[in-house]
Amino acid sequence: MNNFIFQNPTRLIFGRGMISELPKQIPADCRLMITFGGGSVKKNGVYDQITKALEGRDYVEFWGIEPNPRIETLRKAIELGKKEGVNFLLAVGGGSVVDGTKLISAGLLYDGDPWELVLSGRNTNTVPLGAVLTLPATGSEMNSGAVISREETKEKFAFYSNYPRFSILDPTVTYSLPPFQIACGIADTFVHVMEQYMTTPGQSRIMDRWSEGILQTLIDIAPRIQENKEDYDLMCDFMLSATMGLNGFVALGVTQDWATHMIGHELTAIHGLTHGATLAIVHPGLMRTMIEQKEAKLAQYGQRVWGINEGSTRQRALKAIDRTEEFFRSLGLATRLEEANIPDETIYEIERRFNHRNVKFGEMQNITGTVAREILINCK
Ligand code: NZQ
Ligand code: ZN
Q: Which of 19, 49, 181, 195 to mutate to test the pocket of ligand 1 (most atoms within 8 A of CB)?
């Protein structure tokens, strides 16, 4: 196990009816701005719960943070927030609203163009932020990351700021999610764990078991959620799996990969594909391409998560990849580029972008533009 320093300061407020906790979490004398997505919260009662909880308080609302939040929209939110003297933010929505609001939280204290913050990669000079999460997937409610898109140039980059001060997770607000978003949320959570687990074997027994526990939970609940997405206990397990999958707890002292995500972000940037859907396409192809390096860990994963005990290490590793792809398909997601109408030119464009940026992703830092091309060819 490698050395590490770990601190996760987000207060997690979990369970039915917990939106009513809001007034205790937001200082009465702050200048508050509440940020929203495209309006799902007006249909499922979340907006009503927020206004009721904050009755008597004065605040500004900003609507319209879209999926894969765009800098073009966030600039407007920052302008409004500056004009109103905002010094506390509440994000109400999925990962996109939370991510976008993280950039706003830094942008409010920055004089230049906020895209410079994204390109700088990190800025922790922020106003405080809280969240009411409506979609389990990204872990953004309990991490410091955000992914911001720029429509104009078809770019999408990760940015790090501060953790939310608090996040409210009421699983009943997820009942209104469309099945496709649930499928993408499960795939996203699954791949988050894999990015931190499917790396170097033998680094940490405790991290391995923790990751395998989340993966097994997802495999167990996915078909049941498809049957009934209004089962409270199932949605509790889904929501907590998503948070635990990307709040740092499964990454302590171990190497990480993240190449599936980096390639997936390009597919979203170029073609607008939903985040979780890109991962279901890229991840099996990545594992097939990197089998030499990942073989031992794949065999461990196959045995412990999928119960694959027969055959050589290579055969078990290959079977584990097949089972993973079948799992994504069982969610109703495409797992091949053609199914999503991604042309070959995109493969070469991603190779070109990665080579231009001189990237080196993966736990061995050996996934370059050329390797990304090989991975994408294996996703056809
Ligand atoms: O905008 P509204 O109307 O609210 O509708 C949203 C949106 O259309 C809808 N939705 C959310 N909650 C709902 C609901 N519809 C009905 N009922 C509810 N309870 O779902 C749609 C998708 O929402 P979005 O926030 O885009 O989804 P998600 O949470 O998957 O976030 C995706 C974004 O997060 C980034 C992705 O790249 C993508 O931009 N990620 C952020 C990460 C992080 N901060 O650590 C890590 C991830 O790997 C990921 O990259
Ligand atoms: Zn993700």
A: 181
Protein residue with its CA nearest to atom 36 in ligand 1: 275
Helix axes 179-197, 232-245, angle to 10 degrees: 40
- Cα of 257 from ligand 2 centre, angstroms: 12
Cα–Cα distance measured from residue 177 to residue 136, given in angstroms and rounded to the nearest whole number: 10
**Which phi and psi angles does 176 have, rounded to 5°?**
-85, 0
Under DSSP, the state recorded for 108 is: T
Cα 87 vs. chain centroid, distance in angstroms?
26
Q: Model-level pTM?
A: 0.98
> Ligand 2 centroid vs 149 CA: distance in angstroms?
14
CA–CA separation, 333 and 30 (whole Å): 43
Residues contacting 154, CB < 8 A, separation 6+: 269, 270
pLDDT averaged over 10-residue windows placed end to end, the chain, 380 residues: 97 98 97 98 98 97 98 98 98 98 98 98 97 98 98 97 98 98 99 98 98 98 97 98 98 98 98 98 98 98 98 98 98 98 98 98 98 98
